[in-house]
Amino acid sequence: MVANLRTLGPVMLVGAGKMGMALARGWLDAGLPGSSLVLVDPAPSDAAKDLAADYELTIHAEAVGLEPNVLVLAVKPQIIGDVMEGLKQAVGPQTLVLSIAAGISIATLSAGLETERVVRTMPNTPAQIGKGVTGAVAGPDVGTDDRAAVDALLSAAGQVAWFDAEGDLDAVTAVSGSGPAYVFNLVEALAAAGVKQGLPEHVAMQLARQTVIGAAALMEADPAPAGVLRQNVTSPNGTTAAALNVLMADDGLTPLMERAVDAARKRSEELGRG
């Protein structure tokens, strides 16, 4: 079942930061009527004001007198308690709560908003350009229609992956949530290696950056597994094979990435415990 954004509203977005604005623009571009979107932010950014002007939206300082069908929480986790206190009166029996606040458990959200119809998610920053992937876990009272609504909203930012166990979001955070930074660091490392081989710094960065951009685009265009794509560009006993012998050694990239992801997961668990 696929929910229709045109009939989904009203959708209330609380928090008009970069991710919130990226989601809102994606919804509007995908068919959510401007009249069905309510923005709530006591201190909206210039980007939020520009979006409101583009689509003739009103930005509310607080959620007074509003009862949405979907309440999307896109605020910093440090202020979630105070925000939820001000939103209780906006949550009715028809309201589905969708949170993208990092590290805030379903139990905390349910207690704070007095509802079990809660979906907790973990998006990543490429969602800001519609190329993200978001992990989602449903609370006990979330039904099939609710999941379809979440899919419709989050698909505007990229792909959606559902998980049964809330603890899996710590692994999601470690792989895809933090993953873009790993790729950016790979670009930095590849460029630094190019400089060490005698390339000018700006040229090395251009080569490294575009190589990763192009490889990602190629992977998006070709459904073959990453291992097959790697093999396709690796000639026996060639230069790529020589480099991969280093990267795929027992002490190469895979164990290094395993340690990095494990560290990120442990930190996610720590933050979740407060």
Question: What descriptive keywords fit this protein?
Answer:
single chain; 274 residues; alpha/beta; Rossmann fold; ProC C-terminal domain-like fold; 2 domains; 11 helices; 13% strand; elongated
Report what the structure shows.
The protein has an eight-stranded mixed sheet, with helices on both faces. Helix 1 links the parallel strand 1 (11-14) and strand 2 (37-40). It has two domains: 5-169, 3-Layer(aba) Sandwich (Rossmann fold); 179-272, ProC C-terminal domain-like fold, CATH 1.10.3730.10. The protein is α/β, with parallel strands linked by helices. It is built from eleven helices and eight strands.
Brief characterization of the structure:
By secondary structure, the chain is of the alpha/beta class. The chain contains 11 helices and 8 strands. An 8-stranded mixed beta sheet has the order 3-2-1-4-5-6-7-8, with helices on both faces.
What strand order characterises the main sheet? 3-2-1-4-5-6-7-8
> CA-to-CA gap between the ends?
37 Å
Nearest-angstrom radius of gyration?
21 Å
Helical stretch count?
11
Strand content: 5-15%
CATH third-tier fold name of the largest domain:
Rossmann fold
Question: CATH superfamily assignment of the largest domain?
Answer: NAD(P)-binding Rossmann-like Domain
- CATH top level of the largest domain? Alpha Beta
Residue stretches low in confidence (pLDDT < 50, at least 5 long) are none
Quickly give the structural class: alpha/beta
Helix and strand run: EHEHEEHEHEEHEHHHHHH
Overall strand count: 8
3D shape: elongated
Instruction: Say what oligomer this is.
Output: single chain
Can you summarize the main beta sheet?
8 strands, mixed
